[in-house]
Amino acid sequence: MENARREEIVAAGVRSSLPGVRSLEVVYGDVQVLALSAEYALASASFRREMVIDSTGAASKSQGAVSWLWRNIDGQWLIVHGHISHPLDAGR
Prior knowledge:
The chain has one helix spanning about 5-15, and strands spanning about 20-35, 40-55, 60-75, 75-85. It has about 90 residues and is of the alpha+beta class. The protein has a single domain (about 5-85), classed as Roll (Nuclear Transport Factor 2, Chain: A), CATH 3.10.450.50.
């Protein structure tokens, strides 16, 4: 599978898990996908994200690393677990 297609699939999964977001711009880099079996796959990437929350209009920017465990359920690849790591803010 091409990297561009992998990024589209990952972005679609993220958007579906954030229903309260008005807009979402995510740039993924270094996307890696590891097939664990015919039913499971592990994806990881670095990211830069900018989003606007629907209810408040507040904008948020972040960057870091993400990983997702995908499962093929009834022919659809769905995220069943995810983890996001953000760098610590040294000024806090």
